[in-house]
Design brief:
With about 100 residues, the protein is an all-alpha fold. Helix content is about 50%, strand content about 0%.
């Protein structure tokens, strides 16, 4: 029996399988954040402060505590914080969270 003209004009659904091998590319792993050096961060604090940024804004941008930024900006003899050591401890915590 001959197919009807309407059946002949309908598209057929065929599963086409691509037989080329698929090479999976691994996505680049995000690099672990490394500990920053106090000298670099203090330079950034100085630049941001000279640009007119506030202490809370600087602390948020650089991911350090306000105590460190304030200690660096004020440099008061009444503040007894060992800024460099406190920065190192905060860096250890920051890296542990990531």
């Amino acid at each position: 029996m001959a197919p009807r003209s309407s059946e002949a004009s309908e598209p057929t659904l065929e599963k086409v399988v691509d037989k080329t091998p698929v090479v999976k590319q691994s996505a680049p792993k995000p690099s672990k954040p490394t500990a920053r050096k106090w000298e670099e961060v203090s330079g950034q604090i100085k630049k941001l402060r000279e640009a007119g940024e506030t202490v809370p804004a600087i602390a948020e941008k650089l991911q350090v505590s306000r105590v460190i930024v304030n200690q660096f900006c004020v440099r008061s003899y009444k503040m007894t914080v060992n800024t460099k050591r406190l920065f190192e401890r905060e860096e250890e915590r920051r890296l542990a969270e990531n």
